[in-house]
Design brief:
It is built from seven helices and no strands. With 243 residues, the chain is an all-alpha fold. The longest helix has 69 residues. The protein is rod-shaped and about 135 Å long.
Length: 243
Amino acid sequence: MAETSNTPHVLKSQANWDALYFYQKSDVIYQLAFAFCDRFIHLYKDRTRDQVIQAARSCKQNIVEGLADGVASTEMQLKLLNVARASLKELREDFEDYIKSRHLQFFISGEPRYADMLNYCRYHNRLSDYEPFFAQWTDEQMCNYAITLCHFIDRMMMSFLKKLEQEFITEGGIKERMHRARTGYRQQQDERLKQLEAELPRLKQSLAEAQAEAAKWKAAFENLKQRALKMYYGKEEEIKRLK
């Protein structure tokens, strides 16, 4: 029996993570972190370089892995996206530590540069929007933009996680979806069986009526055949006599 549109599904549809703003911004933050380390953190003398790059990469990659795993497991998706958030918080802390340890300034509310930065980060998501500035911004600017992007990503991910949490509460995980799908399929099979069993007596009655009608027509045909043969043989004898 073919699957109907009412049959519950075990696997969820694949999320297009490239269309999600928090993924787009996570790609920006990874490339920004890489460019920042390449310009301002010594390749060998400061271990922070590897930590910053790995934290930024972990954020982006765990978003991808979490959304991919979400096809089968909402639980795994929630876990991996939360790992991405943890990496993001670690990255934000590293940029904040850089500003503090170098006695640089945080952009604060009320400053024109803060308002400009906030608006830019809010409405720009793609790497192409930021990449031209990677070679121009000072370390102070790059840190502040990175911290702001981290805040936006975290806020967006929290909204996404709350949505997933609600889906998990209402729909359950893969085991529950598998149970519903199997139970739903069996229910459809049972309902179809009941329909067929209910139709069987009517079909038997229709068959008996059709057979009776066929027998009647067969008898009529045999009668007509015999009459035709009798007339034929009668005419044949008359023809012989006339000759």
